[in-house]
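Quick one: structure tokens for this chain, please?
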Amino acid sequence: MAGRCYVSVSDAALCQRCPALLAYKIHKGRKDAWKVGIKGSKNSYYGSLFHKEIAQVFFEAAANPSSKIHGEIARSFSGGTSSLESVIRERIFVPFLSSKSKHYDSELLLSMAEGIRVWVNAMWEFFADIPSISENMSTVFIPPEQTLRSCYDCHQGKLYIEGRYDALLFNPDRAEARLFEFKSYMKSDVAVPLSQSLMYSWLVMRQTGITPSVEIIYLGEGHREPVIFSASCVKNMIDTGLPVLFDTVYCVMSGRKVQNFLRDRKLCSVCKFDGTCGNDWRNLR
């Protein structure tokens, strides 16, 4: 009888970099496996902090008419990017600074401030095709941190995937969506955040029938310009890449042999497990 396995988006992305890394985390409890090969900024929490303290607060307020700043956000759309940016800075970023800035260094705070500008410009490009956005905010701004779940039928069994995206915008008039991911990684590591974004996009597509475009916003070490992948590009990458990844994840989770497992010599050269994984996970090969 085919079995069932359950995996988070972040763990599935770990498997994409190397199945053995997922095996170490799942079967040996090595939660630090995700750090292998990541060339992030020295403050690797830039992305998660920006998401939690800035983007999440904004999306919750924009999607909720009873929020104290919902009306200010709605009125800001008539003033362009500078007006929207001003609301986010004054009503979200400044309160964050007042209550928590002493816990973080100036480099991180400056990065967050610059990140607001980049992010607002990125959103505004999507807003351009939405008429009367201030009257449709509850349908345009999707509450953040929504857990999405779906099942993929692998060759050996069923793989259940779940994850919570960073931020999601909808254009109801054109049936379009834009998924935002805030990351600390350098652009040279684009595959790391993109692999997760493709899975979030797949989850959105399974739930809504709409394939979102993806915009990755970098917040660390001077990499300011976002990277955008069109909906058609995202759909193509989902169709060509995720089935193989999901089958591999299922094999690792269920202890089966991974077919065509090729070692990444560059990743192995910086991996703390390189001296032992050959014996630990011989069944993967």
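The CA atoms of residues 21 and 273 lie 9 Å apart.
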